[in-house]
Amino acid sequence: MDGSVGARSFRTPESQRLDSFVDAAFAFAVSLLIIGGAEPLRSFTDLAVALARIPAFAFGFGLIVLFWLAHRTWSNLTPVRTGWTTVLSLAVVFSVLVFVFPLRLLAETATHYISGGVLPGGRLMSSLSDLRWTYVIYGAAFAILSGLNAGLFLHAARALRGLDAVAHRNGLQWASTWGIAMVTGLLSALVAASPLLGVAPWLPGVTYNLIPLGVAVVTWRKRRGV
Predict the structure, then answer these.
(1) CB 197 within 8 A of CB 204
(2) What gap in Å lies between CA 24 and CA 28, rounded to an integer?
(3) What is the tally of structural domains in the chain?
(4) What value, to the nearest 5°, has the Cα angle with vertex 70 and ends 102 and 85?
(5) Which range marks the domain in which residue 167 is found?
(6) Who has greater pLDDT, 159 or 136?
(7) What would the pLDDT profile of 54-113 be if each residue is shown by its tens digit?
């Protein structure tokens, strides 16, 4: 077995405590996602309304899990913790706890719109200005979280340079992927702040489809050595 791989599999008590704290914070963020839309059930109608929120919750849950998996992947890539990686990890915790609020609002609004008004969420926003600022806040939070992930992976790639070629390359690839996600979040926020929102209120959300496209282009260029 490669010595560097063995070193990367070893976790110090400090790294274990930090990772456990981050995991607990993501679990709490999921709880906020549920509690934010929860109301006391007094009748079967209330139960039906609560169940109708499941699609929006599933969307938000999936996105939070995506960010959690990114931190776990980084943690497996390099268990060594420095002061800088600790700051970045704590910034991820803070950001995801803020991110959950615009996420819930946007998720319920989106599922209401996609379902043709069948699912709840139609009264969460009363004007185009509400939608604009929700998109802007969401895009900024998404960009910040993505940027923090990019920073963590870039730091890991630099630390692993000359020690583990495969892990170094993986770190750079993940940093590139989250860098694309960060730029996309900023672009979505800019689109939401522009007059384009009045013409196409769905455009800031569709902008996030650029992430897999950007990743595919970068991967293709690397394979061709461009």
Answers:
(1) yes
(2) 6
(3) 1
(4) 100
(5) 3-223
(6) 136
(7) 888 888 899 999 999 999 999 888 877 788 888 999 999 999 998 988 888 888 888 887
